[in-house]
Each structure stands twice: as structure tokens, then as C-alpha cells.
């Protein structure tokens, strides 16, 4: 990542803020590296002041001293002899000699007690950092020397304070991973997981006792031949890691000074005074963990571990990093983003399951106002849900808006124009309020008026978000219906394949050096991704984030949990990689065909080429097996891709629903009674105004993104409208004016594409009442239809070189359909009328006039076709198209194409007395429009 957080966030106060709240100096930073101590802008001494610092990476130079402190950081890097100190000193000593013959020498001053120092260190990548932590009591001062009278007594040393260190240790993190490996059910999965662990970039902890021995044990386990050997080697490695942990804990404990102050010595005199008392030692606690959630079971004195405003600002910066992500040209950025999201996810996980009555929850509730926050624990819980959703998005290969690379909407030109005009108009006021607030905040002149304005503006933003959420939620049941349709036809296809495999077993064994059944099982788990998505998945760790089940409850819709994927991994583009990937899946009791079973994700073009070569290698002697394999695998892979789409929609719905909930709760918490007691510069209010601004801008940019995608669906163009719309502006420069320009650019291109489409296409058939193009369904599918009442049909893609024997759409480009009819020969019903449900399942390919192929993925389109079985008279046509294009604003949907998977179903509930036992044929009839090919021309 080359861009800093500061270059992404619009106001510098969002990146770094220092503010005093009730006498406490709060410092919040999301800078990549924050300097503290000697030579830094913050400084090294805050005498008499409590400092609470919440940051990411902290660079500590020398000793930073203050009255008391909370230091909460991800990592801490010391420079020179670095330390954090809340040690007590003492006031000015009494004068050295008492010359008053009538008064005894003065007593030495008492030391000042050490105060509390609480340090939360999430990660120690290089072992425990060499930082001294001190809360020692101040020394007592010497008694006054007296020439003629009694010498002064020495002052008392003060009590030591308390130091609490919570530190995340690499050895404990690795030990936790090893416990997970031990629980894996098969040797193959254990060795795969160990290999993945060894491939990770672990820090060089050679000097830590036991570390090298633990890694050696892991390497030895990769060659183990039994699960017992693996368990034995990993158990031994765990013992070594415990030794490394003990060494880290001992080093940390030794670096803590909570000693009581030394006593002050007596003052000489006649007679001499008495020595003071040594101060009692304070308390120290060192708690180490592998991941922050482990702290839920630890006993430690509560303190403000993490600040919700600092977490909210980091999440804002993460969202912006996600927005500018380019997985193809900058794959490392995906890895870095995944690391940042995981860090914030882990930081807030402790609070996700925190009981309301627990000591830590009570501490936050009682003291949050001192830290400039309201409903802190609730905020941290919402941030955790957002991180879970964003991680799931990233590891599913979706962009920052939650969309797949080929996603297109089916909204109209007028819909997007009206929506953008309204949203950009509202954003003008939001932006003015945002800039006014931060400009005044810099001058300490901000008022609660800007906060109240933001709260009121939030209402419109939530309303827009609710409408978007409704549209997303509405697609989920339809996706589940499509998946269920596949489940009814797959068993028959698998049975046909099994018959052929059994029939040709000897030839298959002679032909291939692997079990053919294993290949079939592996292929049943396969789904595809285009290059950009595949690169994102690879860089994000090569597996889908397993958080969809957690998010299901947040989505606001009824979820088919059988369709939630438990695991998915990327694989290379050859047969060996597929087989190896399949062996590594942890499917437990799942069968490969089960919808929720683990999935393997391959780059689509590469693997299709590999699979075609493999089928060709089977030759004529295995042609029947090849045909049965193709029929089965094509359908199950279509099903698998639908399952991925289903999971992606749930993630998006959960993210949007949790965002709305968090926004509404924040507005409710910041009611008039709360605002009356707050200062406009409090950290929470900064985050509140920021969130409204970025959320509103993101809503507009998301709509612009969809509008540009809709343009591509109409125009069949690779023109990068988004790049044209924003020009060379950085994300922090995109404001109201830039959004107006972007909207005009995209809408102008969109409108022209719609008009051009309406004037250049040729309809088929020439007359609406004539018969359209007919696609006869193969006999084996007709047989399946009689049993299942459901089939899926995928017309052969027509390219420029395709002839009529291959596709009924030969010589046609940019084919769009207006009507699709399903004629079921031999069907019978009680009313002699048949209602057929026809579904365009969403993913499709459209070939442009120059031969370019465009992949699209939109929501399913479902239509009913109803006709009289005796006369063929149509009562209800399945209209998938649009009226003749005259006014672009009148359109609801862009016309879909035929080169997709069509699901044809006869539902008994819609057809009383239906009998399909006599069906002898199924024919699809297409009406639509197309262009002639102009291959080689622009």
C-alpha cells in the first residue's frame, strides 16, 4: 500500500486528533506510524496530565512521561532507550541547613506515588519490545540538617503505582493455529494446513528459546505418515512454543518497575532526625494472548482497551483503501488490505461477545464520557460486524460495493438519472456542513449546530440505504429457488454418469493414473472466477472468509443455511491442482454434491481450456463417458456459481443492514439530552460527522458505479466510464463538484447507448405474430423433465464463425430476447391450460458486432408463460424484453440475451391435475432482436 491513510481521508483531524476531555489528554491516530517521545510533535513530557493514546504503529523515542496513561497500539517500536513512565517524583527539597536555633530541622518531602500505566499491545512481531514500563514511587527527600537543634526526619518514599501490560505474542498465535490443525479430521488436511502455516511470513524469533525447535517440529510434521505422528510432533512444538511464551512473559515482567520510593535519609543535628519510610511496592500484571478474543477468559484489571472513534476512523480509511483497490495491477494491496481488516476485526472481536454485565462492559459504560464517547461497546460491536462483512466480501472476490466483476443492474436510464439527481442534491448540503464543521474545529470554534445538521441529514441517507437494501434482499429468495431447481435434476445426471463409469471402468483405469471417481468428486466442487476476482482471492489468502454463516442473521431475510459455503479455496488450472485442492477441503460429513460443501475456485478461462483438453484426451472409446461427464459437470458448476452468488448477496445484505442499524443507533444515542452535555470536538462527534459524509458520498459513487455497469450492458463497450468520470482525482478530492461531473459524464454516455441500441437492431421474427427461433431440448433432458418437472437449458453461444448446425442464433450479434415461450408436448392438466415458469438465471454472455464477448451477471428474471394445451392459444406471454425504444426514460429493464442458463419448471401448485408422464418434447421459442456481425470493424 503506497497511499497513507492521511491521503485517503479528507480532513487531517480524521487521521489524527488530540483533545482534552475532563482533564485527560486524548490522542487518537490512524497514521501508519505515529512518533512519540523525544523530537516528536506530541513531545515526551506531560507533567500532571493523564494521557490516553490510541493508535496503530507507535514509534517511541526515549522516555515518555506523564501523570498516568493508557497506551493502546497495534505495534510499538522503540528507539534508543525507550520507556513509558508514570513514576512519581517529589517536590523541591527543603533547604540544606537550618540556622534557626529555636526550630528543629524540617522534615524531608514525601515522594509522590506512582500512578497507573496500562499498555495494550496487540502484536509483538519481533518478540517483546525492549521498552521499560515504570510506575515507581517517588523517593522521599532528605531531612534538613540542623546546626543547633534536632535534624529533620527524612521524607517517606511513595508507593509504587500499577502497571498492566496486555501483549499479543507470536508464539501463542502459532500455538492457537496448531490446535486447529490437530482437530482436522484427515492426515492430508493436516499436512496441507501445516504447509500453509510454514508458508506464512513469520518473524525471525531465532533468539527466543524454543522458537526454532517449534518450527523444526512443523517441518517434520509435513513428512509424517500418520495422524498420530502429526499430533505427536505438533504437541512437542506446542511445548516449545510454551517455553518461548514463558521467556517473553519473563522479559516483560523484568522490564516493569513498580518499586516503592526510597526513604529519605535523616538530617544530621543534635540529635539527628530519623530516616523516612520506604514506599511499598506497587502492582504489576502481564497478560499475554494469541488473539484479542482470548482476553474474554482472562482476569485483568479493566481499562479502556480500544477507543470506538479510533476504530471507526481506521474502518473509514480501510473502506477507502478497498475503494481504490486494483487486484490485477497491485495484488499486494489486496494482501495488505486483508491484513488491516483482520487486525480491526480481531481488535473488536472481544467486544462482539462481551456480556453487558461483565467487568469490562461495566467499566466502559461508567467511564465512556471521560473518553469522549457514547455507547462505546455497541459501536465496537457494529464495527466488528462491518469488518466481518468486508472480510467476507474481500475473500469472496467482490469489489468495495459488494459486486462481482460482471455484475450489471437492470434498472432504467430514468431511474438512475432521478436517483443521482436526488442524491447529489442532498450531498451538497452534507458536504457544506462537513467542511464547516472541520474548518471551525481547527479554530476551536465548532458548534453543536453542525452536529444537529448531520443528525437531521442522516435521515435521508438512511432512507436511501433502506431502499438499496430492499432491492438486494428481494433477489435472495429467487436465487435460492434457482439453486433448488438444480437440486432436482442433478441426481439423475449423476446416476447416468455413474452407469457409464461402471460400464467403462477397465478402460478408465488403463487410460488415467488416478481414480476417475476422485476427479468427478473434485469437479463437483468447482466454481469459476474471472481474472480480477481470482487474483483478489489468491492475494486474500486463497480461501473464502468463513464468516457468511455469522452474517446470515444480520441479512434481514430468511436464509437457506444449507446453501452457505463452509469453505472455499483457489486452485491452479490443471487436473493435478484440482485433485490436490479437493483433498485439502475440510468437508466433514458433506458430500461433494452438497450445496454447502467446500468449493474450489478456478480462473475460468484457464480451467475451461484445461478441461476441454482433458475431454479431448478421452478419445472415441470413452465418448459416452465424456458426454455424461460434460452433462453432469456443466450443470453442477452452474449450480456452484449460483451458490457463490447467493452467498455474496447475503454478505451484501448483511453489510448494508448492519450499517443502517448502526447509523440509526448512533443518531438515537446522540439525542438532545446527550448533545447538551457534550462538546462538539469530542472524538465520537468527529466520527459521526465523518461517517455521514463518507457514507453519503459512497452511496452516490456506488450508484454511479452501477450506472456505468448498466451502460456497459447496453453498449457492449469496454470503455472505462468510471476512469473518465473521475479523471485523475484522488479519492480525497472527490466532492460535490466532482460527483456532478461524473454523473453528467456517465449519464450522457448511457443515454446515447440506449438510443443507439433502439435505432440499429433488427427484430426476429420480422412480424411479432410469426414463429420465433426454436430450440428443441435433447431427449435425455425431456426424460428428466417428465420425472422432475424441471430442466435447465443453455443455448449454444453464437460467435462470428458459428454456423446454423451449431446454434440457431448463428450470424447474429448482440442478441437480445423480448419473449421466450416453453412448449411442452404431451403435457396434460385438469383445465387443459399449462402455466410454465421460465427463469433467466442471471449470468449470461453477449457477443458484440465485432466478435468481442461480454460476460454479465444480473439478478434472475422470472416470467410465467401460460397457454392452452389443445389450441396453443397464449393467455400470458413471458415478456423478457421491452417495448420499442422511443423514450429511454420509459424503460424498466435492459433487454437480456439468450446465452444464459434458462430454468424451465412446471409447478404442480400452479397447474392442478398436471400430468407430465406423456411428455415427448420440450421446445423453447425465442423472439428478440440482433445485429449483423462486423468482425474486424470498429
Explain what the structure shows.
This protein is α/β, with parallel strands linked by helices. Among the domains are: 5-169 and 253-310, no CATH class; 171-251, no CATH class; 412-446 and 680-760; 762-931, no CATH class. It is built from 24 helices and 26 strands. The strands form five sheets. Strands 1, 2, 3, 4, 5, 6, 8, 9, 11, 12 and 13 form an eleven-stranded mixed beta sheet that branches. Helix 3 runs antiparallel to helix 4, helix 5 runs antiparallel to helix 6 (227-254) and helix 7 (308-323) runs parallel beside helix 21 (683-715). It is elongated. It starts with a helix and ends in a 7-residue tail after the last strand. 47% of the residues are buried. The model is unreliable at 883-892 (pLDDT under 50).
Largest sheet: 11 strands, mixed
Q: Which whole number gives the mean pLDDT?
A: 89
What class do helices, strands and sheet pairing give? Answer: alpha/beta
Query: In what range is the share of β-strand residues?
Result: 15-25%
> Roughly how many Å apart are the termini?
38 Å
Low-confidence stretches: 883-892
Percent in helix: 40-55%
Overall geometric form: elongated
Strand segment count = 26
Count of runs of 4 or more consecutive helical residues: 24
Set out the fold topology.
Elements (H helix, E strand, L loop, with lengths): L4 H4 L3 H4 E6 L2 E6 L4 E4 L7 E10 L2 E17 L1 E11 L11 E2 L17 E9 L6 E4 L10 E2 L15 E8 H13 L4 H13 L11 H11 L5 H28 L1 E2 L25 E7 L18 H16 L7 H22 L6 H9 L8 H20 L17 H30 L5 H56 L1 H7 L4 H9 L1 E4 L1 H9 L8 H5 L15 E3 L4 H10 L14 E5 H14 L5 H47 L2 H4 L7 H33 L5 H6 L9 H25 L1 E3 L8 E4 L2 H10 L1 E4 L19 E13 L7 E15 L5 E5 L3 E8 L5 E3 L23 E6 L15 E11 L7
Parallel strand pairs: 2-4, 3-5, 4-5, 5-6, 5-8, 6-9, 7-10, 8-11, 9-12, 11-13, 14-16, 15-16
Antiparallel strand pairs: 1-2, 17-26, 18-26, 19-25, 20-26, 21-22, 21-23, 21-25, 23-24
Amino acid at each position: 500500500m503506497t497511499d497513507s491513510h492521511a491521503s485517503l481521508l479528507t480532513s487531517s483531524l480524521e487521521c489524527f486528533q488530540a483533545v482534552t476531555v475532563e482533564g485527560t489528554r486524548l490522542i487518537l491516530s490512524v497514521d501508519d506510524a505515529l512518533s512519540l517521545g523525544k523530537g516528536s510533535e506530541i513531545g515526551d513530557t506531560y507533567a500532571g496530565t493523564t494521557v490516553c493514546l490510541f493508535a496503530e504503529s507507535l514509534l517511541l523515542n526515549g522516555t515518555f512521561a506523564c501523570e498516568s496513561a493508557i497506551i493502546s497500539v497495534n505495534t510499538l517500536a522503540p528507539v534508543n532507550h525507550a520507556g513509558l513512565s508514570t513514576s512519581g517524583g517529589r517536590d523541591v527539597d527543603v533547604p540544606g541547613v537550618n540556622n534557626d536555633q529555636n526550630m528543629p530541622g524540617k522534615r524531608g518531602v514525601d515522594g509522590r506515588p506512582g500512578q497507573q500505566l496500562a499498555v495494550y499491545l496487540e502484536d509483538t512481531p519481533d518478540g517483546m519490545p525492549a521498552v521499560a514500563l515504570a510506575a515507581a514511587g517517588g523517593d522521599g527527600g532528605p531531612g534538613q540538617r540542623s546546626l543547633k537543634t534536632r535534624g529533620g526526619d527524612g521524607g517517606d518514599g511513595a508507593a509504587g503505582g500499577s502497571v498492566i501490560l496486555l501483549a499479543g505474542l507470536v508464539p501463542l498465535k502459532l500455538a492457537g493455529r496448531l490446535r486447529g490443525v490437530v482437530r482436522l479430521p484427515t492426515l492430508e488436511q493436516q499436512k496441507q494446513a501445516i504447509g500453509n502455516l510454514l508458508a506464512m511470513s513469520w518473524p525471525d524469533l531465532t533468539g527466543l528459546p524454543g522458537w526454532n525447535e517449534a518450527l523444526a517440529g512443523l517441518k517434520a510434521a509435513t513428512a509424517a505418515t500418520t495422524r498420530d505422528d502429526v499430533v505427536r510432533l505438533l504437541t512437542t512444538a506446542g511445548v516449545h512454543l510454551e517455553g518461548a511464551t514463558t521467556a517473553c512473559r519473563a522479559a516483560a515482567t523484568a522490564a516493569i518497575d513498580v518499586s516503592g520510593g526510597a526513604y529519605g535519609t535523616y538530617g544530621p543535628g543534635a540529635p539527628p532526625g530519623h530516616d523516612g519510610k520506604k514506599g511499598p511496592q506497587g502492582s504489576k500484571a502481564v497478560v499475554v494472548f494469541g488473539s484479542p478474543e482470548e482476553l474474554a477468559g482472562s482476569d485483568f484489571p479493566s481499562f479502556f482497551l480500544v477507543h470506538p472513534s479510533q476504530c471507526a476512523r481506521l474502518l473509514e480509511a480501510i473502506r477507502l483503501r478497498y475503494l481504490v483497490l486494483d487486484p490485477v495491477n497491485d495484488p499486494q494491496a489486496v494482501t495488505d488490505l486483508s491484513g488491516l481488516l483482520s487486525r480491526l476485526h480481531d481488535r473488536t472481536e472481544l467486544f462482539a461477545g462481551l456480556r453487558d454485565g461483565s467487568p469490562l462492559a461495566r467499566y466502559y459504560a461508567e467511564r465512556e464520557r471521560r473518553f469522549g464517547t457514547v455507547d462505546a461497546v455497541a459501536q465496537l460491536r457494529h464495527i466488528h460486524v462491518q469488518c466481518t462483512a468486508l472480510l467476507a466480501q474481500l475473500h469472496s472476490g467482490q469489489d468495495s460495493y459488494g459486486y462481482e466483476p460482471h455484475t450489471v443492474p437492470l434498472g432504467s436510464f430514468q431511474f438512475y438519472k432521478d436517483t443521482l439527481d436526488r442524491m447529489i442534491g442532498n450531498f451538497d448540503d452534507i458536504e457544506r456542513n462537513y467542511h464547516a464543521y472541520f474548518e471551525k474545529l481547527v479554530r476551536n470554534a465548532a458548534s453543536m449546530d453542525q452536529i444537529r445538521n448531520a443528525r437531521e441529514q442522516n435521515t435521508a441517507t438512511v432512507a436511501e440505504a433502506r431502499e438499496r437494501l430492499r432491492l438486494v434482499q428481494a433477489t435472495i429468495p429467487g436465487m435460492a429457488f434457482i439453486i433448488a431447481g438444480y437440486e432436482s435434476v442433478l441426481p439423475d445426471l449423476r446416476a447416468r454418469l455413474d452407469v457409464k463409469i461402471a460400464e467403462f471402468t477397465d478402460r478408465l483405469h488403463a487410460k488415467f493414473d488416478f481414480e476417475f471417481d476422485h476427479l468427478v468428486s473434485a469437479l463437483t466442487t468447482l466454481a469459476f472466477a474471472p481474472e480480477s476476482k481470482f487474483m483478489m482471492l489468491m492475494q486474500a489468502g486463497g480461501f473464502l472468509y468463513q464468516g457468511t454463516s455469522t452474517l446470515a442473521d444480520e441479512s434481514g431475510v430468511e436464509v437457506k443455511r444449507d446453501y452457505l459455503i463452509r469453505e472455499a479455496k483457489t486452485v491452479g488450472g490443471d487436473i493435478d491442482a484440482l485433485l490436490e485442492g479437493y483433498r485439502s477441503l475440510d468437508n466433514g460429513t458433506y458430500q461433494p454434491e452438497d450445496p454447502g460443501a467446500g468449493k474450489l475456485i478456478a480462473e475460468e478461462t484457464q480451467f475451461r481450456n484445461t478441461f476441454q483438453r482433458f475431454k479431448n484426451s478421452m478419445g472415441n472409446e470413452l465418448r459416452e463417458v465424456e458426454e455424461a461427464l460434460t452433462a453432469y459437470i456443466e450443470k453442477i458448476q452452474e449450480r456452484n456459481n449460483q451458490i457463490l452468488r447467493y452467498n455474496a448477496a447475503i454478505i451484501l445484505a448483511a453489510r448494508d443492514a448492519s450499517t443502517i442499524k448502526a447509523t440509526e443507533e448512533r443518531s438515537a444515542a446522540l439525542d438532545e439530552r446527550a448533545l447538551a452535555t457534550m462538546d462538539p470536538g469530542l472524538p465520537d462527534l468527529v466520527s459521526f460527522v465523518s461517517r455521514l459524509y463518507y457514507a453519503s458520498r459512497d452511496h452516490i459513487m456506488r450508484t454511479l458505479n452501477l450506472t456505468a455497469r448498466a451502460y456497459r450492458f447496453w453498449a457492449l463497450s469496454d470503455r472505462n466510464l468510471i476512469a473518465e468520470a473521475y479523471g485523475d482525482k484522488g479519492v480525497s478530492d472527490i466532492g460535490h463538484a466532482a460527483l456532478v461531473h461524473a454523473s453528467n459524464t456517465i449519464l450522457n454516455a448511457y443515454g446515447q447507448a440506449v438510443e443507439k441500441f433502439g435505432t440499429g437492431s433488427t427484430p426476429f421474427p420480422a412480424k411479432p405474430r410469426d414463429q420465433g427461433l426454436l430450440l428443441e431440448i435433447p431427449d435425455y433432458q425431456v426424460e428428466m423433465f417428465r420425472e422432475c418437472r424441471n430442466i435447465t437449458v443453455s443455448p449454444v453461444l453464437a460467435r462470428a464463425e458459428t454456423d446454423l448446425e451449431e446454434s440457431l442464433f448463428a450470424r447474429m450479434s448482440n442478441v437480445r430476447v423480448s419473449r421466450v415461450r416453453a412448449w411442452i408436448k404431451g403435457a396434460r392438466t385438469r383445465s387443459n391450460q399449462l402455466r410454465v415458469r421460465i427463469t433467466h438465471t442471471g449470468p449470461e454472455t453477449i457477443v458484440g458486432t465485432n466478435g468481442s464477448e461480454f460476460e454479465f451477471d444480473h439478478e434472475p428474471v422470472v416470467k410465467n408463460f401460460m397457454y392452452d394445451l389443445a389450441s396453443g392459444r397464449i393467455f400470458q406471454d413471458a415478456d423478457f424484453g421491452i417495448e420499442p425504444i422511443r423514450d429511454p426514460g420509459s424503460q424498466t429493464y435492459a433487454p437480456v440475451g439468450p446465452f444464459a442458463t434458462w430454468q424451465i419448471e412446471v409447478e404442480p401448485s400452479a397447474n392442478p391435475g398436471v400430468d407430465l408422464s406423456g411428455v415427448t418434447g420440450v421446445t423453447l421459442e425465442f423472439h428478440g432482436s440482433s445485429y449483423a456481425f462486423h468482425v474486424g470493424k470498429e
